[in-house]
What we know:
With about 350 residues, the protein is of the alpha/beta class. The chain folds into three domains: about 5-85, 3-Layer(aba) Sandwich (Rossmann fold); about 85-110 and about 130-150; about 165-350, Rossmann fold. Helix content is about 50%, strand content about 15%. The strands form two sheets. The chain has a six-stranded mixed β-sheet with strand order 4-5-3-6-7-8, sandwiched between helices. Strands 1-2 form a two-stranded parallel sheet.
Amino acid sequence: MAKTLDYEVVETIVQNRESVDGAYCVGTGKITEIEHLVEEKSIKAIIFTRSLSSGQVFRIQKRLGGQVKVIDRNLLILEVFEKRAATSEAKQQIELAKLRYTFSWGRESVRTRGIIGEQMGRGGPGNYPYEAYEAMARKRISKIEDQLRRSRGKKEILRENRREIGFPIVALTGYTQSGKTTFFNRVASESKSTGLGPFTTLSTCARKVTYYSKDKIRTEFIIIDSIGFIEDLHPTLLKAFYTTLSEIANSDLILLFVDANDDLPTITRRVTMAEKIIKEKSPNIPIIICVNKIDLTTHEHLKQVTESLRNVYGFHVTEISSTTGDKLDMLLEAVHEAIVGPEIEHAARKISRCVSPSSL
């Protein structure tokens, strides 16, 4: 992610500790080592993989001289989000996530530094400077939440219109860089950006797809591309992307993408976490696991992954390559079978409600 944002990573430091240091996250010896590296290599930014408290951020900055940028993994993710954001809704969601996540950071900054060096204390308007900051932040958060509620209301109307027209909704989900957008482009004849690193897709995109099954039955459905999951995503960041989760919750079928290149423990862990998120939002929606990028792995590894996923989760599992199109027809046939069955049952129930006992 750092390289995606054009950071030049010049050093990586690892420390194994039984507990996180309350002052600096890392121990005093390690922060001294970092201090020397900053001076020796003219480091401009320090990125921690662990979440940092507001107090830790400012203690680290003070220790390193105050001119070094100190962020944690969550703020790095938000920087990626900012770089990728293309729609006003995505930008609002990112700003909201940043305001919520850094709320205590801003308060600590004002409390630590004061405003333009002034002594902290009541006076003037009658509030501590950090209280004024909190009031402004809360006002901005409230305004963005209101804007997003209106935007979601419009999307809800759009979803209802899709349902009234009668098109089933197929949502693409899975971890970032698993090939969802490449699949979306191929199936929907689109040209969305791909291969730009994590979170290339930040806003949901929907297109109608027409497919003819092997029995020459025409099936039409709406396919929705959405933001990818990432492991250990902070709840505040996940909450900000309500739109993606609501699209999943309102779908008729979910295609869960996994990268066939990953090792089996990683794939299993990610599928387990994705299933947990999906089931919390939409417990009754069928799932098809798409083992993607089969052109980049070995036959033996692919067989192991596929058999393991079928045995552990009991979902329909299909192997595909979004890039080459290999076995794409098998996945689309599975999508056809998954959505046509419920459509026939729905039509039958509708007819039975319309037929009166006298006509029978």
